[in-house]
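Issue 218. Parser rejects a valid record. Input:
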Amino acid sequence: MSGLSVRLQSRAPIRLQAEFDCAPGELVALVGPSGSGKTSLLRAIAGLWSAPDLQGHIVCAGQPWLDSAAGVRTSPQQRRVGLVFQHYALFPHLDVLANVALAAGAAWSTPALTSLLERLGLSGLLQRRPAHLSGGQQQRVALARALVRVMPAPSQGPEAASGVLLLDEPFSAVDAPTRQTLYRELAALRQQVAVPMVLVTHDLHEARRLADRVVIMDAGETLQTGTPERVFASPRNARVAELVGIQNHFKGRFFKHTPGWGRLAWQGRSGQIDVCVIDKNKIGEGVPVTWVLNGEGVDVLPLDAPAPSDPHVNRLRCQLREVLPLGEISLCTLVPEGLPDQLITLNMSGRVLHRLGVGPGQWVQLELAPEALHIMPQR
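Output the parser choked on:
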């Protein structure tokens, strides 16, 4: 394999049951709550953390960095890793150029390093020490220091790029404008350097924006891997749904209806509503399920809106229970007719609310696209 392959297990002091792959030029985001093992996994790849019982393998560009079965365990110095720490970890007694030169190989000349730093917006700051740089400038220095570990020097060809770039919440400590600038620089970098990139982040929006694939982690375990679009819309289980921030999570029972379509009996304490769902032939007849509703697949309509032409589109009469303005959007809670104990939460713009002319206590229709409903067996 030319990219990065990680398969790790350990029991103590930190539990790990993690696996993922990252191809050259791909960016994979490790997402999960604090204490889920994201940073420990990143440090294990870099060779900076190793439990006595750590088993499995880490292979990069065909080179084994760890193979517990074969007794292979290379040192951090032997691994071609560029690591950007959350709090930069720059040497305070060295200036910008010296901080980066310390990580560069012999192929990197001073003019080449200077050119890289200038491309990252650090022109004129090469003799400054970290204490005299802003947070965004320090972050750029940390990124440059990581890059020279994995990207080819100008005197080398693109084929010299190797190793892996590891990013440990690199944008969490900078302000919003600087974060946007760094996002652009990372996007530009990915067009120039074809190495695997692994990003640790707790920011779901950041993961969706930057990553080709996400790895959802909890308690050291890989729960689900896939494209952001798939994972956030189709979580594997209730815990993944919770971790990716899906608010509308309900219970019911699945029944087959017609080829390709099923009937979901949405069950509350005092009632039931039947809604149409896509049948992927993965859940049996009458099986209890949990299910999530993706708010991006929901339209809010007035009560007198004409019936949908597609018979598989669901329409629900709902009462608007609460409207909490949050800047440009309002957090709205709705109660489906016939299910008084079930609450649907949606983010609605003030423009939509104004167009509908509704407020708390009034009624609307929700139109639910079948693909907005994702069902999972109860576990």
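Fixed in the parser; the record now loads. The radius of gyration is 25 Å.
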